[in-house]
Amino acid sequence: MQLINWKGILESILFAAGDGGLSIKQIAEVLEVEELKAQEIIEDLQEDYEKDENRGLMLVSMAGVYQLATKKEHAVYLKRLVETPGGSHLSQAALETLAIIAYRQPITRVEIEEIRGVKTERPLQTLAARALIKEVGRAEGAGRAYLYGTTREFLDYFGLKSLSELPPLPETLNDEDSGEEADLFFEKFQELDG
Amino acid sequence: MQLINWKGILESILFAAGDGGLSIKQIAEVLEVEELKAQEIIEDLQEDYEKDENRGLMLVSMAGVYQLATKKEHAVYLKRLVETPGGSHLSQAALETLAIIAYRQPITRVEIEEIRGVKTERPLQTLAARALIKEVGRAEGAGRAYLYGTTREFLDYFGLKSLSELPPLPETLNDEDSGEEADLFFEKFQELDG
Amino acid sequence: MQYNVKIEAFEGPLDLLLHLINRLEIDIYDIPVAEITEQYLLYIHTMKELELNVASEFLVMAATLLAIKSKMLLPKHEEDLSEEYGFEEEEDPREELVERLIEYRKYKEAANEFKDLEHERSLIYTKPPSDLSEYAKEAQSDNADLNVSLYDMLGAFQKLMRRKKLQKPLSAKVARQEIPIEKRMGEIIELLKRTNSRKSLNELFPIRERNHMVVTFLALLELMKRQEVLVEQEGNFAEIYVTAQEGGAVDATD
């Protein structure tokens, strides 16, 4: 009898890791098992996904990172999902992207993707098509990437006179992270906010 | 025999939608089934997750949308993935203010301050910045003060389906004693002082 | 500073009064005003002694308590008088305060329940929406149907911020254990050869964790220097692609 539901735990952590995925080493560390054992659990879960047609996910490995993905045969439904925007709301992805641009403009796509942790091409297309954002220039340096900013329509749509009317962001949100590398981003926010 | 693996498809699209979630309407549209049928599939999948300990996910309904989330019992493993587990919790002042708004919305700042007996500007700012409350209108009369109400994010933050799911407002006093330490301290100080 | 924090455990005068009522095991409907006023003033006094900034609300409440106390001390004959005039119940000077305390107490308790809910919710983890660009057709361009508010945008952003915390998987642990550049070079070559195709730069940074990204970047530079990979960009601002060079010397199995 198996006392610890390794597969369930693995599914949990891979799910939460999202598109970032997890390396075998990270998986072994989180589960507190040897890498060999981790490998075994991975293969078990992989097999479950493959065998069971009632499961919509698969476990893929890319560049040494394991991650969950939707099964290829369900692509047609995902396509429909994209074409059926949620009761004509902007998607969560688009709203996130818009928030980042609104508060941090001008900003490049790569910077946005760093913050979101996922690719952001599609949300940018959607927002640009709706004229809520636009290219406002080019970044200095190597790639000379496009810089994005919000538009007049953005202000109109949300009933703002100017960007300074955007609600302030919380100061305390990142207290616990103090001294941690991650939140240069947040410091920037506070400078803006300050 | 079931030809279409509804559960697998539902799992796929919920996975892709992530924390944006999907409404019953969206699910029905994407699956091209009646809402009643969609509801049935949702419940089937929900049951699968619950019954099978080898699954790490659950299907929850929060803030009017269905979404996948990890099972609570795996929180201990997920915490290992995060550097600062827990995140930033709301302060007591913010929680009190939020409670008043949740049960009494729409409500003005002055009315909130009357109940709390203290100034409440800062907690209101924090709550608005965290998108847990919003201005929902203006009060009639002289000042035309802003009226506050809760948001979708509020429901999501506390894992509630809808406002009707708020816990009933307590009427009886429990013997909780949060200020005990302060007491000890004051007593000490008074001894010294006296 | 520590003291300061503890005194601020009281959200306001009502909170402090509730605390005193609780501690002195007093019936909230029959508050001994003299006693509670004395206790209350003692706290205020102590706060001042400590040179803490006593919010004006605390002083207002002190005055209210003193006023109630003096009303309670009014000569007894007035009560007789009111009975003569047929008042069933003399208005209790404490009544308004008691009502306020009871009202406030409800929300203070509700706040505790919210705290529990907040904790429960923090035990479950969700994932960001997947990138569905490969399924997308052209984006829509009419905003009439948009139906979102600023708060939806902020809400989405809050979700993102909450989620972000999980996207630094094990950064502390990983940071302590160095990722060997050689190993990462091997992984990159292995990926490029196995898939036998060019990869965009983005695809070579699967782990959005600073250390890993830095090591990946250094590994790529080293591979370029050793001419193990070819890096190309079609136009000035186009995506950068990486391809494995034929006859590279780095062992892909390591």
From TrEMBL, chains A, B:
Mind listing the UniProt keywords for this protein, alphabetically? Cell cycle, Cell division, Chromosome partition, Coiled coil, Cytoplasm
A single GO cellular-component term on record: cytoplasm
Q: Which GO terms describe its biological process?
A: cell division; chromosome separation; DNA replication
One Pfam match, given by its short name, reads: SMC_ScpB
InterPro entries attached to this UniProt entry:
ScpB_csome_segregation, WH-like_DNA-bd_sf, WH_DNA-bd_sf
Its subcellular locations are: Cytoplasm
Q: Which domain of life is it from?
A: Bacteria
Instruction: Using the record for this protein, list the coiled-coil segments as residue ranges, or answer none.
Output: 28-55
> Gene3D superfamilies, from UniProt?
Winged helix-like DNA-binding domain superfamily/Winged helix DNA-binding domain
What does this protein do, in the record's words?
Participates in chromosomal partition during cell division. May act via the formation of a condensin-like complex containing Smc and ScpA that pull DNA away from mid-cell into both cell halves.
Which PANTHER family would you find in this protein's record?
A: SEGREGATION AND CONDENSATION PROTEIN B
Note the NCBIfam families from the entry.
SMC-Scp complex subunit ScpB
Record-stated family: Belongs to the ScpB family.
Relate the assembly described in the record. Homodimer. Homodimerization may be required to stabilize the binding of ScpA to the Smc head domains. Component of a cohesin-like complex composed of ScpA, ScpB and the Smc homodimer, in which ScpA and ScpB bind to the head domain of Smc. The presence of the three proteins is required for the association of the complex with DNA.
Name of the protein described by the UniProt record: Segregation and condensation protein B
Automatic annotation (TrEMBL), chain C:
Q: Cytoplasm among the record's keywords?
A: yes
Q: Out of the domains of life, which is the source?
A: Bacteria
Signal sequence, renumbered to the chain: none
Keyword list (alphabetical) reads: Cell cycle, Cell division, Chromosome partition, Cytoplasm
Indicate where this protein resides in the cell.
Cytoplasm
A Gene Ontology biological process term: cell division
Answer yes or no on keyword Cell cycle: yes
One matching Pfam family, short form? SMC_ScpA
**GO-annotated cellular components:** cytoplasm
The function of this protein is: Participates in chromosomal partition during cell division. May act via the formation of a condensin-like complex containing Smc and ScpB that pull DNA away from mid-cell into both cell halves.
Task: List the PANTHER family.
Answer: SEGREGATION AND CONDENSATION PROTEIN A
User: What does the subunit section of this Swiss-Prot or TrEMBL entry state?
Assistant: Component of a cohesin-like complex composed of ScpA, ScpB and the Smc homodimer, in which ScpA and ScpB bind to the head domain of Smc. The presence of the three proteins is required for the association of the complex with DNA.
Descriptive protein name = Segregation and condensation protein A
Per UniProt, what is the name of the gene that codes for the protein in this document?
scpA
